[in-house]
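Summary for the lay section of the report: proteins are chains of building blocks that fold into shapes. Here we show the chain for SHOCT domain-containing protein and then a coded description of the shape we predicted for it.
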Amino acid sequence: MFPQYRVKPSKSSSVLGMVIGIIFVCIGVFQFISVGIFGIIWTLVAATITIYHAVNVFSKEGVSSYQVDVGAHNNTKTTSEDIEADIRKLHRLMEDNIISEEEYTRKKEELLNKW
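The coded shape description reads as follows.
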């Protein structure tokens, strides 16, 4: 399994987001709540943003914005030197009777097909 890392906003950006969220909640409560459904939606969204950032400020774990899977995709190209070194290692394994000649041939073909 590849390691996974959770990415969350920094404390300083969460503090700023929380302060702005509080300001937007106050605007929603004092200005828009009488407007109707728009005021209610505005206030609820502002409260959600404020709570999200407050959790990131005051808790140790916080709420991650997204998750990164490290190593899940290997986009590096193999060079001929890498393949040659791998084939030489396989040949040594075969000479030491660790793998059979059939396994050596099969793995060698796989490596050559990568190139």
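Put simply, here is one thing we learned. The mean pLDDT is 84.
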